[in-house]
Amino acid sequence: MSQAKLYTIPASHPGFTTQLMLDFKGIEFKRIDLLPVVSKGILRARGFPGVTVPALIISGEKVQGSRPIARALDRIKPEPALLPESGEKRAAVLEAEKLGDEELQHPVRQILWWVLSRNKSSMGSFLEGSHTGVPIGLAVKTAAPLVAGSVHFNQADDPHVKAALVALPGLLDKIDAWIADGTMGGETPNAADFQIAPSLQLAMTCADLRPFIESRPCGELAKRILPHFPGDLPKELPEEWLKPLETAPLNSE
Ligand SMILES: N[C@@H](CCC(=O)N[C@@H](CS)C(=O)NCC(=O)O)C(=O)O
User: Fold this and answer.
1) Residue 17, CA atoms < 13 Å, CB-side half-sphere
2) Angle ∠(105,225,90) on CA atoms, nearest 5
3) Which of 44, 99, 174, 227 is 20 to 30 A (C-alpha) from 203?
4) CA of 53 to the centre of ligand 1 (A)
5) Quick check: CB of 37 below 6 Å from ligand 1?
6) Which of 34, 53, 106 should be mutated for ligand 1, with most atoms under 8 A from CB?
7) Exposure string for 18-51, b = 16+ CB within 10 A, e = fewer
8) CA of 151 to the centre of ligand 1 (A)
9) What is the pLDDT at residue 172?
């Protein structure tokens, strides 16, 4: 099998999901770091059907999206498995993984771009350890159009960010409940752990959100699965918008 190639964007949460899964499987890979927005054209030029990372070339196949990649990895290298064998446990992990992909990833992305657009110099902290081919200082100086493009593509505007902050406590409660019933957070991580931990770590790069996540079971799990995540954003969100996080009862339905 020729070496796998992972196309990602520095600090992309599903990009980290894929790296964690490749490491878990013991599959060697080359990581190609792309800058946001510019990534879209490069992925098309490489023959991928979509314009988002993670995008993986493995065993001659092009696979795009963190969940299709998880399924492909289990097919190509079944052990260690990313999903439990048994029906009920397997269905629960798939449900948690789906929530991570479809409900958690994007609101976190929207909050991040909203805060980053007001703190462009923080872009450098997200590029730590990456190799985009552009020196970090230059990338930061020229970040404005990339940040503006990302805000636009991701609808990282006031109404969406406010809605994301309203939805977040309920999502954290669901994840904590999955940890409590053993769907997530077991001794051996599964596809849901790998899907959700990077989104929570990305959320915790925001000083506004960190205190509401880090001491919860889901915050602890994220730090265990992915101990180091690049990026650091100062407090920026209006206090009023954070109220839903402050008043949310822990572990409510
Ligand atoms: N749910 C998809 C999301 C993929 C996605 O939206 N990736 C973002 C990076 S986190 C992307 O490629 N954005 C394009 C850009 O920033 O230009 C997955 O898990 O693969």
Assistant:
1) 33
2) 70
3) 44
4) 5
5) yes
6) 53
7) bbbbbebbebebebbbbbbbebbebbeeeebeee
8) 13
9) 98
Q: What is the pLDDT of residues 105-151, one digit of tens each?
A: 999 999 999 999 999 999 999 999 899 988 888 888 888 999 999 99
Residue 63 Cα to ligand 1 midpoint, Å, equals 13
The encoded tokens of residue 229 equal 């995540």
- Are the beta carbons of 39 and 51 closer than 8 angstroms? yes
Give the residue ranges of the chain where pLDDT is below 70: 1, 248-253
Measured from the Cα of 150, ligand 1's closest atom is 16
Residues 6+ apart with CB under 8 A from 56: 4, 5, 6, 7, 18, 29, 62, 63, 64, 69, 72
User: Which atom of ligand 1 is nearest to 39's Cα?
Assistant: 17
CA of 15 to the centre of ligand 1 (A): 8
Do residues 222 and 197 touch, judged by C-beta distance below 8 A? yes
**What is the Å distance from ligand 1's center to 34 Cα?**
12
Nearest to 196 by CA among 64, 73, 128, 108: 108
User: Would you say 44 and 69 are in contact if contact means Cβ atoms under 8 Å apart?
Assistant: no
